[in-house]
Amino acid sequence: MNQIQRAVGYSRVSMREQVDGHSLDAQSVNIQNYCKSKGWNLVEIYTDAGLSAKKDSHRPSLEKLMQDAEAGSFDIVVVDKIDRFYRHLHGLLTALDQLNKHHVGFVSVQEQLDFTSTWGKLTLTVLGMLAEIYIQNLGQETRKGKRQRARKGLWNGSIPFGYCRGNCSTCTDSNGPDYCPCFGLNDICESGGVAIHPIESQAVKIAFEKYLSGNSSDALIAELLNELEVEGYRGHTIHFRSKGRYSKNSPGLISKDSVRTMLQRVFYTGKIAYYGIDESGNKRRRSHSLEVYDAKHPAIISYEDFAEVQIIRSSLTTTPKNMYQHPTNIFPLSGLLRCGYCGSLMRGVSGKNILYYRDAGQIERTHKCKQPLVKANEIDTEIFKWIYETISNPDDVSIQASIKKNREKAEERFTRAQSLYLAGELDSTKYENEKVRYNQLTETNSCDTKDLQLITSVSIMALVNEKRDNENRTLTINKKKALKSVFKALYIRGNAIVGLEPTIAFMSHIRKENDPSQKGKVVCSSGSDGVRTRDLGLDRAAC
To answer: Which residues constitute the domain of residue 117?
Structure first.
């Protein structure tokens, strides 16, 4: 004997339809009669009164219906007409696909659509596939449009903090009336353009200046900005405040997260970043943009300052703060130093007024390793001594030539790998490895590589020329920042450095041979992956 199907109904009217005389009662009667004719048990009728069925509309009863469908509370959904359920095709197909996954049928009385039959279920499956194809195609077309806008120097999305539309005479910005000194005056930008906001831009400049000093974290900068007073509308004294979004949130205090986002926006340099999506289908992080283009809007800060901030942020896991009235310890090699025995990272630890580096595996008790504690001061001094003796006073031209040569080699190798892959002579695993290698060598970290490498070179030269006995806090931060520009990894066994992996930026600084016959040639003391091994006691083939 067949089990009686459990059915639920769904009815809806908008405000306009209520005025025009459409009745929820009429829909309910049609749903009840249809269920009776089929012999179904009508459990409940979900109702949304006075609500639209457009895209992204919030309908509590419909949301409850979908939750109950997932919980298996009924077998069939019955509506009087499809437009009572959804007016938007994408929303309709998505909802039907979800019901199908929960083994819930769908029936429309007026259109005589019954997805509970065999052919109806097949039709529902096809509609779900069409919905998926539609979504994928829409995403691709949207990304194409955003990329093209970026190429033209145009911004995608809402205007970032620090900028505005520049339509002062008709301004409706949250930070316009009673806040901006230009409110109500002549427009400072053409329609559709982007202008510098007189007040917000000051906060952006202060944030970058404070972070570049090396003594402020995101939280401390946010606290400072919220305390500062500036001259605003009609000369009134005001405090900085966040931009706010229409219908979402009002302007308020500037948060730590707002400062973090602010310091990572290349937009402030007069450039546009296109992020795209990564291999997993997610939007790329702000520090991993796919492309950067010159933009049409004016810059608030220099590109050099922006690049310096990115170097600092990549060097420091956390910006130094004061704890219990004592400054926290800074370990220049943390994140770079690795154990030459097991490959684990070496972490900075302190004990009895002495700073050490210790194998992270020993700290976390994940494995045993014979690597002893290493005095931080001794290994730091040795590394900087090596850098000082290695750098050979390169000029800007040689730096750029070396960078260009390295990039050309990487591109040539990857192009060849692509050709072999398309010809079927290279398997997918090896091709993906080559792709990862190429991306690592050419990664821009949201900065133009040429500019960033030049800045790196200048910072290294300035650092090694400082007095090495100067152990003030700012110099220690600069050391950590420069080391990140020089090395990808350093390997030690006991107190001895047994291997190193330089960055592309530092390759042009490697010391030349004194032998006249070797003049102009870079001494290669590394393996094929760039890890220096010759005469260092590692069981690896040197190049």
So the answer is: 6-142
Residues 136 and 181 in one domain: no
Beta carbons within 8 Å of 22's beta carbon, 6+ residues apart: 13
Is the entire prediction scored with pTM above 0.85?
Answer: no
Same-domain check for residues 256 and 365: no
pLDDT in tens, 372-410: 999 888 888 888 777 766 654 545 455 556 666 777 777
Which of these, 116, 120, 57, lies nearest to 85 by C-alpha position? 57
**pLDDT score of 77:** 94
* Radius of gyration in angstroms for the set of CA atoms belonging to the chain, rounded to a whole number: 31
* Tokens representing residue 151 in the block: 């190429």
347 within domain boundaries? yes
Amino acid occupying residue 94? T
CA distance 47 to 62: 8
Same domain, 175 and 285: yes
25-39, 301-315, 320-334, 455-469: segment of lowest average pLDDT: 455-469
Residue 370: which residues within 8 A CB-CB, separation 6 or more? 341
| CATH number for 14 | 3.40.50.1390
Contact 115, 106 (CB under 8 A): yes
User: Is-contact 291 273, C-beta < 8 A?
Assistant: yes
User: Which residue carries 């959804």 as its tokens?
Assistant: 86
**Residue 282: in which H helix or E strand, if any?**
none
In one-letter notation, the amino acid at residue 412 is: E
φ, ψ of residue 195 in degrees (nearest 5): -120, 160
Work out how many domains the chain is built from and give that number: 3
Query: Could you tell me how many residues make up the chain?
Result: 543
Tell me what pLDDT residue 204 has.
95
**Per-residue pLDDT tens digits for 490-538:** 899 988 888 888 876 666 555 443 333 344 444 444 444 444 444 433 3
Residue with structure tokens 């520009």? 485
Of 216, 492, 196, nearest to 333 (Cα)? 492
Instruction: Report the candidate in 530, 244, 276, 256 with the shortest Cα–Cα distance to residue 410.
Output: 530
Residue 409: both structure tokens together: 């080699």
Give, in degrees to the nearest 5, the angle at Cα 474 between 471 and 477: 95
**C-alpha–C-alpha distance, residues 76 and 68, integer Å:** 11
Each residue's pLDDT tens digit, 25-62: 889 999 999 999 999 999 999 998 877 666 567 788 99
Are residue 117 and residue 184 in the same domain, yes or no? no
Contact 249, 243 (CB under 8 A): no
Looking at the fold, whether 347 and 489 belong to one and the same domain comes out as yes
CB-count burial class (<10 Å; 0-12, 13-18, 19+) for 269: buried
Contact assessment for residue 341 and residue 493, using Cβ atoms and an 8 Å cutoff:
yes
Residue 310 lies in a domain: no
